[in-house]
Amino acid sequence: MFFIKSIVLIIFLYLILLIFLYFYQNKLLYHPNINSYSEINNLIPKIEKVKITTSDNYKLLGWFHKKDISKKTILFLHGNAGSLENRIYKLNHFENFDLNFLIIAWRGFSGNDGKPNEKGLYEDAKGALNWLRSIGVKEEKIILYGESLGTAVAIEIGQNKKYAGMVLEAPFTSMIDMGKKYYSFFPVSFLLKDKYESVKKIQNIYFPVLVMHGKKDKIVPFKMGKKIYNSANLPKYHYFSEYDDHMMDFNESLIKELKLFIEGLN
Questions:
Q1: Cα separations (Å) of 69 from 8, 31, 59, 109, 165?
Q2: Beta strand 73-77 pairing with 100-104
Q3: How far apart are CA 150 and CA 30, in angstroms?
Q4: Which residue of 1, 91, 196, 218 has the fewest CB atoms within a 10 Å radius of its CB?
Q5: Does domain 2-263 have CATH number 3.40.50.1820?
């Protein structure tokens, strides 16, 4: 009798956990309030704060650095945690590249209204592309730069397009695969709402791709970045660091590789 009661209790607790994971998965996936405590006055490139309007009428904060509209423009799509300020140490290096850049904050991030979700982030990125087009930036001059979660968004909006190039920093194969890594005892495929199936979509990218991943990444396994690279079409390039963790160190070696990739784009 005690054994049966124990089994019933375990099943009951398991079901409670399933319900919790289903209804709170958004909070487990998106972390807008994580802050690096960096401040905008640490940003070296001069930027203009802009408002990006999405198709579903959200207003998003963006930082735009303009050198020359005829030059290439990076659209920077950040990861699942923190504000635009968290990326300042990366953006500062773009000052040395002969290009423009736009970084946007997702809905629900950096003071923006709304709650992040897969469909919403795709609309946010499309809104940024529309804004760039509205100021005269041509599609073939845009470089999509995805960071972690942003890699899935970059791959989604890059499918069957003719952008100049794509940079994927610490990409994952799918959120299902990530969920199985962290919640292996649960039916992740059934529970998960935001699936971000990048490994299927990367095959629809037909312009140059640079995959960057650290072999010491404790959040997104390096093998996922390697699989994304292996699944990508030519031309493709990689920067695989022996020592970097998830937030890659923008050291001299990485910057050199990134600059070579950008300068080599038509």
A1: 65, 33, 23, 27, 17
A2: parallel
A3: 12
A4: 1
A5: yes
